Amino acid sequence: MRGVVTPILGLLAVAAILLGWLNATEWRPSTEVTARMRVTDTRYVVTDPGVLPLVDDAVTLEAKASGRAGQDQQVCAAVGNAKDATGWLAGNPYVRVTGMTDWTTLSSQRASASGQSAPEDGQVAFADSDMWRSVDCGATSATLTLKKATAAEVVLIDLGRKTDATVSMHWTRSSVPDFAMPFFFVAGLLAVLAALTASVFAMPPHKRRKRIVESRTKPVEEVAVGEAIAGSLSGLKTAVSFKPRAKRRRRHAAGAVPADAALREQSQPTIVDPASRNLVADAASAPSEEPAPAADSAAPAPAGGVDDATSVISPAELQSYFARLAQEMGDEDQKGEDR
User: Alpha-carbon distance 12 to 17, whole Å?
Assistant: First the structure.
């Protein structure tokens, strides 16, 4: 996406810059505007209110009659208000300048005579009338220059007789519309978007902004009816479990030893602590398995008594002692593991 959008935005930005440059140089509106029109077979030409400041307040109007001027012919142009111009034109046909069809052509419209004209004997000359604010006359042409034209002012042109003439208006604009700036603004915006698409918008979302990535929810697996019933029954069995009742223990009388305990004590060997007893003396005092000879039994006992007599332990007795000790130690270890 970045390899497609970024070049397109870049090309659009370059095109907007080119259009802006053309509007600032080659296509820039001119400060000088001149519009003309040609009238035929008429004596009077008048502008409509609002035509003089149509392009700018500074305007120059020129009227030029065709052919050679006669001895009594004079072309005049005067500036006045619309009411005075209408009174002067009473009873005479004339041509109205209504505006502009384009930047080089004035639009016009013929108007028929209305009212009654004044008698020529007592009529004041056009150039000498006090109804005009300013007037200019010439043999074949007249020129008026207005620096601050208003919409209420009109220009009345008298060609002296019915003839053909050319009327032109020239404006000098103090300010022209700037058509280049919008293109430069659009070009800058497109350049910023191209830079963003090539850098920030091309980064992964987890790098562009911090957010918690939530895993998609897994679809719930459908369970068959038989499996659902089996699961319910197993849950019920686990919840309701029957524990067997503990067996009654037989109470024994106080001081009585149970039979199994007596048997266990008889079966287990007696543990003798060698540190607390004199094994040599015990072995000597114990009756011998073989009957002693009569001569030995009749021998007199030592003066020190039984405990003072010292007898020799045979190897068989010592081996038997260690065998019992090893068996007792083994039994104790087995009981500890059973517990």
Answer: 9
Q: Nearest Cα to 84, choosing from 125, 123, 120, 133?
A: 133
Helical axes 180-198 vs 2-24, angle rounded to 10°: 160
Q: Is 239 helix (H, G, I), strand (E, B) or coil?
A: helix
pLDDT grade for 237, boundaries at 50, 70 and 90: low
Does 48 score more than 90 pLDDT? yes
The reply to whether the predicted model has a pTM over 0.70 is no
Q: Which long-range contacts (CB under 8 A, 24 or more apart) does 235-242 make?
A: none
Q: Is the pLDDT of residue 64 over 60?
A: yes
CA 110 to CA 96: how far, in whole Å?
6
Taking the C-alpha atoms of residue 228 and residue 40, their distance in angstroms, rounded to an integer, is: 107
Dmax of the chain from CA atoms? 210
Share of the chain above pLDDT 90, in %: 37
d(Cα 179, Cα 176) in Å, to the nearest integer? 9
Cβ neighbours of residue 165 under 8 Å, at least 6 residues apart? 38, 39, 42, 45, 63, 64, 65, 66, 75, 157, 159
Residue with tokens 């918008």: 201
- The contacts of residue 184 (CB under 8 Å, 6+ apart) are 16, 17, 20
- Judge whether 152 and 81 are in contact, CB under 8 Å: yes
Q: Helices then strands (H, E): number in the chain? A: 9, 8
pLDDT tens for 185-194 read 999 999 999 8
Mean model confidence pLDDT for the chain: 76
Alpha helices in 90-179 (DSSP H): none
Place of tokens 């305990």: 261
168 touches 35 (CB < 8 A) = yes
Helix (H, G, I), strand (E, B) or coil at 59: strand
The residue among 77, 48, 33 whose CA lies nearest residue 166 is 77
3-state secondary structure 304-336: CCCCCCCCCCCHHHHHHHHHHHHHHHHHHHHHH
